[in-house]
Structure formats: C-alpha cells, structure tokens
C-alpha cells in the first residue's frame, strides 16, 4: 500500500492544479497529533512497559521482568474479577438489547411521541455516574427508599448487601442509564428501512411478528452490531458507577477488572500488577471489538461513522 | 425485488398506511416505551422533590410525596459547603479542555480532508481511528506518571490535558465526516479569490461545520463535566475538587442528610439541563445520525 501512495499524490496535485496543497495544511494536524501522542499513545505504550516493573506510585520505578505478570496471573482475585466483568457485560447486554430494540421500533413508528420521549429519554445521559449512583444508593434504602415509597414489600430488600442482588442492581442502573441512548440509535435505524419492504411483505401475507423477524431485525443488523459493540466494550470500563454504588462489594461480588486495577494500583500501591490488569483490559476490548466486527462482516470505519 | 421498488415509489398515502401497520405490530414496544419513561423519571422526580424537604420531613413522609413544607435550607447548606468553588473548578476544567480540544480537532479534521493523499495525514487519521478503541481507564496509570513528572499533580491542568487528548479521536472523526460533505467547488472558489488554507478554514469550513461543532462540543463537555476517574486519580486537595468528586464527598460529609445530597445533585445538574435544552436538537441528531446505516 505504501508504495502506491506517492504516485497517487503526484497525480492528484497537477490535476487539481494545487501544487503543495497538502503541504500547506499538514501543520494544522500537528497540535491534535502531539496532544494525542503525549496523553494517548505514549500512555498506551507506557502501560505495557510498566507491567514489567515494580513501582509503588511514589518512589522509583524498578524493572522487574515478569514478576508483576506472575503475581497478577497467580492472584486468585483475577479470575473472579474477569468473571464479574463478564457477568456484568453479558447480563447488561441481554437486558438492554431487546428492550432497546422494542422501544426503538416503537419510537420509529410513533412520530407523534418521538420528540417528546426523546427529550426525556436523554436525561439519564446528562447525569454523571457519580450522581446516579448516589441517587440509587438512597433510593434502594430498605426503610426510606423505593420499597417504602411504593409500599411494595418485595422492594424492601438489602439490595446492596447481598452479592446476587448487588450485581442485579448494577445491571439495572446501567440499563437505566444507557437504554434510552440505544433506543434512540435503533429508532434512527428502523426509520431508514424502506416502507416498500413492509408493503411487499403485506401483499405476500406476512403477519406482524413475521415482519418484525424477517424485515426489521435483518435490516437493523449492522445497528445491532454497532450498539452491541458500544455496550460490550463500554462495559469493560464501568468504573465510576461501581466505585460509588457498591465499592466492589459486598465483599468482592461486584469488583470488576477496572475497579480491581484501581484498587491494586492506587490503594495497594502495586502499580506493576495494576498495569498488567490494564493491559488485559486493552486486549479484551480490542479482541471483543474485532470479534463483533467479524460478526457484522463489515469494516469498522463505516460502522463508526457519525458516532 | 423489482416489484418492491415499483410499489414503493413514494406514495404518501401508502407510506402512512404501512407506518400504521408497523406501529400496531408494536404494542409491546409501546408498553415498554412508556413504562421505561416512567422508570427513567422516578429517580429524577425523587431528587427534585427530596431537595426541597426538611430532613425531619424526609424521614416521616412517603418517599414520593411532594414536600409538605418546601424549604430552601438544603440549597443553603450546599452553598455553604464550597459548592461554588467546585462548580467553578468544573467550569474551568470543562472549558479549558473542550475549547482547545474542539479547535485542534477541527484543524486536524480539515487537514485530513483537504490533504487527502498525503501519507503523513493518512497515518495521523489511522492513529486517531485506533485511538477510538483506547479506554481512558486502561491508561490511567501512565497518565498519572506523566502528570507527576510534569509536576502537575493536584492541579486543574492535570485534568485538562488528558481530557483534551481523549476528546480528539471522536471529535476528528465526526468533524471530518462533516467537512467531507462541503462541496469541493466552494473550496475552489475560495482559492480563486486568493484565500489561504488558514482563511478558508475559518471563513468557509467553520461556519459550514457549525452543527457538527456544536454536537462535538456538547458531547465532549458532557463527558468532561461528568468525568470522575481523572479528578479522582490526578487531584487530592479539596481546592481542586470537581463536581462529581464533590458529590461523592458530600455523600460522606452529609451522612444521613439525604435532602442536602439531593439538593447538591439538583444544583449541579441544572446547568447541564439548561445546556441540553439549548443544544438538544443538534446533539440528538448528531449522535444518532449515521448509526442507522
């Protein structure tokens, strides 16, 4: 590819009669490039480098070969953190996707309500995860929260004190925060399906359920991939929410990878092992994104377009 | 397939008919749509009403009952606790990061589109696309190291610099997609008039890209205003606290004074709601456009 590039440039410049055109704009990309290299690319390489060192976060950094990796991989907390991360990822995807699609299809059909609902739907995205977590913490209080408010006995549980319930609460709060956003994405996708397809299928006598499964779903396939990628890769980095809502607890029931990394690095002052976990996070993200891209069978550029 | 295209040739009446059928198909969706709206609104309603309750009132009245004796005391409590300072910190960090981030991203996007064929710019673009996949959480440790070495630890600038860097990839992507849509003839005529690229950037591309610029600005501002990890890791003293960190601290400080916590959340979210009301149309269309392809 690179050998083809120079002739292409040479051909382009004379035809557009703009000799040196690209040369005169190149510098405009420099500030952004430098900033991104300094605080994006170098840290990415740095985290890999730091994973082969021992550092307490304050003193000197000592190279220590594979020590941090051995310690990390032997740590029984790692498989648990990976499991919790996977659990949150899978469950939040399973809950969010069907509901988002249903709401998206509904919003696409009802033009009348769309504007109104879209305005209110977006509010959870305006709030910080910290604010949301604090709010839910108060609302889930068995004595003064939701349960007492609605007078429903079932809601009066020790939501954040029980391992299973705490994971459920996280899934719910994540859904609360992000379902509206994904519904809006699906809404946009459904609106682009040609009406003629539904008309044709009606002539063929297809029922409504049939239409949903053989027209709507296949037509929004790429959107499902995009939305799922955002959900799955995004779930790897849930940090604020877990940090404030459960602190990883009860015990370590909700201590996912990102929180595990933070606690290892900034609380136990083990920056080496923390860097190893960070590397695992990056690899998992890239791997999952690639996997989902394969499923979609299309290049990532077109899918990310206009994010 | 041919018959499909013939029958669907833009008949408005038919279109509505199919839309209606589509909607009837979706009773489940409708139920969920409204039910979910209810679920979305409960906590928001609760925050607002609770912020006007007295502490005593909060414990004796129903969670969802409006305050019987509305009070502004909670807001006074919050204002007495340096919230103005935290608020200004957040404003400084957000403006200080978003304005430069959007401007340099815009310049880079312009260069990438105008300099198509340049190998250096193509590499730069690939690097930014790659950057979309780098989560901030995963590189926080080296970022922390860089900030200490720059002797910027516990300053607002420490939050600003990485925030700028992590706003760049998505901003460049969205902005370059917009600049690509500017008709080539417009650039040509600017050049004929003797405008430099720098002049064309500001006088032609900037006004034409305004909707995307607004979208990108609001999107980034939201992310940085609500950012938690960078302030948590890169600052320490109360003087440098931003809003999300302050909220978590209030939670510890006010303890069982839930109405005061609710007031702090209401007070700090209000500016964002106002900003959202102003830029809503552009934000929504900007965020959802393109996803559906």
TrEMBL record, chain A:
Membrane-spanning intervals of the chain: 25-48, 81-109, 116-136, 165-186, 222-246, 266-289
Membrane topology: Multi-pass membrane protein
Highest taxon in the source lineage: Bacteria
Location relative to the cell: Cell membrane
Ranges where the ABC transmembrane type-1 domain occurs: 82-292
Chief subcellular location: membrane
Keywords: Cell membrane, Membrane, Transmembrane, Transmembrane helix, Transport
Xref: Pfam families: BPD_transp_1
Family listed: Belongs to the binding-protein-dependent transport system permease family.
PANTHER family, per the entry: ABC TRANSPORTER PERMEASE PROTEIN, INNER MEMBRANE ABC TRANSPORTER PERMEASE PROTEIN YCJO
Record protein name field: ABC transporter
Organism encoding this protein: Paractinoplanes durhamensis
TrEMBL record, chain B:
Domain (ABC transmembrane type-1): residue spans on this chain: 87-279
Top-level lineage group: Bacteria
CDD domains, per database record: TM_PBP2
Primary site of residence: membrane
Cellular compartment(s): Cell membrane
Keywords of the record: Cell membrane, Membrane, Transmembrane, Transmembrane helix, Transport
Membrane-spanning ranges: 25-48, 86-113, 125-150, 156-179, 212-234, 254-278
Recorded topology in the membrane: Multi-pass membrane protein
PANTHER family xrefs: ABC TRANSPORTER PERMEASE PROTEIN MG189-RELATED, ABC TRANSPORTER PERMEASE PROTEIN MG189-RELATED-RELATED
Family statement drawn from the similarity comment of this UniProt entry: Belongs to the binding-protein-dependent transport system permease family.
Protein name: ABC transporter permease
Organism of derivation: Paractinoplanes durhamensis
Highest classification ranks of the organism: Bacteria, Bacillati, Actinomycetota, Actinomycetes, Micromonosporales
């Amino acid at each position: 590819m690179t050998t083809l590039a120079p002739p292409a440039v040479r051909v382009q410049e004379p035809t557009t009669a703009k000799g040196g055109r690209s040369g005169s704009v190149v510098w405009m990309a420099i500030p952004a490039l430098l900033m991104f290299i300094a605080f994006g690319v170098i840290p990415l390489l740095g985290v890999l480098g730091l994973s082969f060192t021992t550092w307490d976060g304050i003193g000197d950094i000592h190279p220590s070969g594979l020590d941090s990796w051995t310690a990390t991989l032997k740590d029984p907390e790692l498989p648990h953190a990976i499991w919790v991360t996977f659990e949150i990822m899978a469950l939040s995807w399973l809950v969010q996707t069907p509901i988002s699609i249903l709401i998206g299809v509904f919003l696409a059909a009802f033009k009348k309500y769309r504007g109104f609902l879209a305005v209110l739907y977006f509010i959870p995205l305006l709030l910080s995860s910290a604010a949301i977590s604090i709010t839910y913490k108060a609302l889930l209080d068995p004595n003064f929260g939701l349960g007492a408010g609605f007078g429903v006995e079932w809601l009066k549980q020790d939501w954040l004190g029980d391992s299973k319930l705490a994971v459920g609460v996280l899934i719910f709060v994540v859904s609360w925060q992000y379902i509206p956003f994904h519904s809006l994405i699906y809404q946009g996708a459904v609106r682009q399906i040609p009406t003629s397809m539904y008309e044709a299928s009606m002539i063929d006598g297809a029922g409504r359920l049939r239409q949903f499964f053989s027209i709507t779903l296949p037509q929004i396939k790429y959107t499902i991939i995009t939305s799922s990628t955002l959900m799955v890769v995004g779930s790897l980095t849930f940090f604020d929410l877990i940090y404030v809502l459960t602190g990883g607890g009860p015990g370590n029931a909700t201590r996912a990878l990102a929180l595990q990394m933070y606690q290892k690095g900034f609380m136990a002052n083990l920056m080496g092992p923390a860097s190893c976990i960070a590397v695992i996070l990056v690899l998992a993200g890239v791997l999952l994104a690639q996997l989902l891209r394969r499923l979609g069978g299309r290049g990532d550029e077109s899918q990310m377009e206009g994010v | 397939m041919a018959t499909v295209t013939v029958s669907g040739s833009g008949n408005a009446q038919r279109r509505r008919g199919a839309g209606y059928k589509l909607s009837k198909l979706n009773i489940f969706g409708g139920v969920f749509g409204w039910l979910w709206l209810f679920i979305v609104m409960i906590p928001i309603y609760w925050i607002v009403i609770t912020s006007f309750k007295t502490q005593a009132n909060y414990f004796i009245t129903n969670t969802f009952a409006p305050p019987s004796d509305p009070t502004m005391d909670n807001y006074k409590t919050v204002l007495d606790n340096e919230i103005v300072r935290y608020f200004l910190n957040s404003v400084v960090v957000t403006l200080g990061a978003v304005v430069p981030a959007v401007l340099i991203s815009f310049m880079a996007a312009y260069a990438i589109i105008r300099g198509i064929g340049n190998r250096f710019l193509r590499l730069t673009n690939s690097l930014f696309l790659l950057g979309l996949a780098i989560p901030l959480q995963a590189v926080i440790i080296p970022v922390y190291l860089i900030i200490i070495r720059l002797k910027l630890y516990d300053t607002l600038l420490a939050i600003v610099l990485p925030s700028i860097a992590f706003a760049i990839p998505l901003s460049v992507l969205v902005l370059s997609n917009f600049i690509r849509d500017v008709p080539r003839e417009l650039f040509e005529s600017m050049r004929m008039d003797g405008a430099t690229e720098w002049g064309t950037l500001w006088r032609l591309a900037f006004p034409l890209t305004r909707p995307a610029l607004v979208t990108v600005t609001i999107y980034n501002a939201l992310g940085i205003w609500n950012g938690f990890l960078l302030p948590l890791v890169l600052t320490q003293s109360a003087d440098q606290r931003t809003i999300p960190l302050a909220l978590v601290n209030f939670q510890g400080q006010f303890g069982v004074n839930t109405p005061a916590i609710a007031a702090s959340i209401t007070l700090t979210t209000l500016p964002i709601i106002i900003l959202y009301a102003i830029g809503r149309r552009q934000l929504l269309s900007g965020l959802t456009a393109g996803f559906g392809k």
